[in-house]
Amino acid sequence: MSIATEGWIVFLLIGLVAGFLASLIVGGGGLIGCLVSGVIGAFVGGFLFHYFGISLGIQNALVVEVIHATVGAIIVVLLARLIV
After folding, report:
1. What is the pTM of this model?
2. Which residue ranges does UniProt annotate as crossing the membrane (predicted)?
3. Where are the domains of the chain?
């Protein structure tokens, strides 16, 4: 397995975990819904944390990415509920 493939797998796993955590907090979604909201949330959360210059002070990059993606997934789910 190449490094690029491993990177995609890790990215999807982070998205799945973030989507699952977001569904626990705001409710909803099955496996695909968790994955989609988590992956989109990873982009949204990463952008927002970077844009506002928010640093969590956590040294573990994987934990930071899961937190960013979870916050982003919560925002995505809540915005989707407002639209639909």
Report:
1. 0.91
2. 7-24, 30-49, 61-83
3. 28-83
